C-alpha cells in the first residue's frame, strides 16, 4: 500500500528525495519479502500483489508489473474466485460473513477488470468469460451495511449471463457493475487494436470482411458499444452534475473511469482506420464502399468522441482538489486525445466541423501531462512522443505529401482506479472490503 500511496504523500518526499524515490523505496521493501509470500494463495496476497503490480506500472516497470499481476491472477484462479459457488453463504449469514464474501467477490472483479487496462501487446485474456460464473458486486450501500442484494448483474459472455441474458443489462445495475462491463468492452477493443499492423495490412478480421460489411468485427463491436451505452442507468452517463454527485460520495474515481473507458473504446475502434480515413480525404484511396460518406462519417464519430473525452478530462482536472489522484486510465486518455488532435491540426480536412478544436485539445493535453509528470514516471514516454508530434505541427515544417510522417510515432499501447487493503496489526496485509473509491 505504501508503494501506491507514497507518490501522493508529500510529507514523506523530503525524507526519500521525491515522489519517485519514495515509491521506489517501498517497492524495494516489498520486493524483499516477495519470496516468502508468493507460494500460499490468500485474499490478502492477491490484493498485495495486485497493488504492487499497479505501483510498478506507474513507475514504468511494465515487465515487473505484469509478473506481479500474473501472480495475483494465478492465486485468484487457485481460490476459484471466478466461480459463483465460492461466494455461497448460509441464509442466516452474519453481517461480517456477508461483507467478507463481498470483499472476496470485489477482489476478483477488480483484478479481472483492471487486467484489461494493463494488457500487453497481444496479451491473452487472464479469465476467459466462458469460465466465469461469478455475478457482479453489490452496491456500495449494500456492501457497507452487509446486505445481500435481491438481484445481481452479470457480465455479458459469462456463464451467468448466458443462462440469464437480462442480467447483463439490468437498469438497476450498480456503478461497480458498470465499471466491470466498461473495462471488459475496452479489453475487446484494445486487444483488437493491438493486433492491427498496417505494414501487414492485417486490419484484424477485415482481411475477409470490410469494416462496412455487416459481419465485420468493426460493425459488431461498434453496435455492441452503442447498445450497451443506451442500456446504462441515467446516473452512469457523463454529466457535470453526476460527477459532482459522485464526488460528494467519494465515488468519482470509478465513475470517471467507466466514462473515460467508454469514450476510449469508441475512439480506438475507429482509430484503427485513421490511415484509411486520411487516405480517403486526401484522395489517395479508392474505396469500394457503397456508402460514399462511410469514411467521413467514421471520422466525425472519431473526433466527436475525442472532443467529448477531452471535455470530460478537462472538467475533471479543473475540479480536482490539490492532492487528489487521477484514475490511471484518465492519464492515458489525455495522451490519446492529444495525439489524435495532432492529426486533425495537421489535416483539418479529416473532420472540418471539429478542426478548430484540434490545437486547444493538443495544448491542453500537453499541459496536463506536464503537470502530472512528477508523480507519474510512466507519463514521460507519452509526453515525449506527444511533444515530438506537436513540434513539427506547430512549425508547419512538414509537407502534406509526406504522409503521416512524424505522426506515425504514435503507437497504440493499452495500458492503466485502484483497490485498497489495510495494514493488519501483526504486519500482514488484512483484506479490506474493497470499495470503489
TrEMBL record:
Keywords: Metal-binding, Nucleus, Transcription, Transcription regulation. GO terms for cellular component: nucleus. This is Xylanolytic transcriptional activator regulatory domain-containing protein. It holds the Pfam family Fungal_trans. GO terms for molecular function: DNA binding; DNA-binding transcription factor activity, RNA polymerase II-specific; zinc ion binding. One of its GO terms (biological process) is DNA-templated transcription. Residues 40-141 form the Xylanolytic transcriptional activator regulatory domain. CDD domains: fungal_TF_MHR. It comes from Coleophoma cylindrospora. It is found in: Nucleus.
Amino acid at each position: 500500500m505504501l508503494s501506491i500511496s507514497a507518490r501522493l504523500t508529500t510529507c514523506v518526499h523530503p525524507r526519500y528525495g521525491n515522489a519517485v524515490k519514495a515509491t521506489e523505496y517501498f517497492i524495494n521493501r516489498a520486493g524483499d519479502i516477495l519470496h516468502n509470500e508468493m507460494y500460499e494463495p490468500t485474499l490478502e496476497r492477491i490484493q498485495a500483489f495486485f497493488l504492487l503490480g499497479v505501483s510498478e506500472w506507474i513507475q514504468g516497470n511494465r515487465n515487473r508489473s505484469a509478473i506481479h499481476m500474473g501472480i495475483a491472477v494465478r492465486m485468484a484462479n487457485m481460490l476459484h474466485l471466478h466461480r459463483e459457488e465460492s461466494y455461497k453463504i448460509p441464509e442466516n449469514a452474519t453481517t461480517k460473513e456477508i461483507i467478507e464474501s463481498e470483499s472476496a467477490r470485489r477482489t476478483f472483479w477488480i483484478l479481472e477488470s483492471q487486467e484489461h487496462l494493463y494488457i500487453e501487446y497481444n496479451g491473452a485474456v487472464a479469465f476467459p468469460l466462458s469460465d466465469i460464473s461469478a455475478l457482479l458486486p453489490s452496491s456500495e450501500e449494500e456492501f457497507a451495511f452487509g446486505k445481500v442484494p435481491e438481484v445481481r448483474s452479470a457480465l455479458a459472455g459469462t456463464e451467468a449471463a448466458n443462462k440469464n441474458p437480462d442480467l447483463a443489462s439490468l437498469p438497476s445495475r450498480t456503478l461497480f457493475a458498470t465499471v466491470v462491463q466498461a473495462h471488459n468492452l475496452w479489453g475487446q477493443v484494445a486487444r483488437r487494436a493491438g493486433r492491427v499492423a498496417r505494414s501487414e495490412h492485417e486490419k484484424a478480421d477485415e482481411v475477409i470482411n470490410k469494416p462496412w460489411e455487416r459481419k465485420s468485427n468493426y460493425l459488431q463491436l461498434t453496435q455492441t458499444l452503442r447498445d450497451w451505452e443506451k442500456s446504462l442507468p441515467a446516473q452512469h452517463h457523463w454529466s457535470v452534475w453526476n460527477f459532482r454527485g459522485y464526488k460528494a460520495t467519494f465515488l468519482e474515481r470509478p465513475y470517471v473511469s467507466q466514462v473515460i473507458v467508454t469514450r476510449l473504446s469508441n475512439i480506438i475502434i475507429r482509430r484503427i482506420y485513421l490511415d484509411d480515413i486520411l487516405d480517403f480525404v486526401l484522395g489517395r484511396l479508392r474505396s469500394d464502399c457503397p456508402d460514399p460518406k462511410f469514411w467521413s462519417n467514421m471520422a466525425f464519430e472519431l473526433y466527436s468522441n475525442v472532443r467529448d473525452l477531452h471535455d470530460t478530462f478537462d472538467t475533471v482536472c479543473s475540479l480536482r482538489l490539490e492532492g487528489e489522484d487521477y484514475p490511471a486510465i484518465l492519464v492515458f486518455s489525455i495522451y490519446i486525445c492529444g495525439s489524435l488532435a495532432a492529426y486533425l491540426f495537421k489535416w483539418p480536412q479529416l473532420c472540418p466541423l471539429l478542426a478548430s478544436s484540434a490545437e486547444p485539445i493538443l495544448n491542453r493535453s500537453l499541459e496536463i501531462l506536464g503537470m502530472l509528470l512528477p508523480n507519474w514516471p510512466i507519463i514521460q514516454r507519452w509526453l515525449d512522443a506527444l511533444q515530438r508530434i506537436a513540434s513539427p505541427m506547430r512549425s508547419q515544417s512538414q509537407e502534406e505529401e509526406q504522409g503521416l510522417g512524424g505522426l506515425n510515432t504514435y503507437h497504440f499501447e493499452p495500458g492503466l482506479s485502484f483497490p485498497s487493503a489495510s495494514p493488519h496489526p501483526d504486519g500482514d496485509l488484512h483484506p479490506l472490503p474493497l470499495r470503489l473509491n
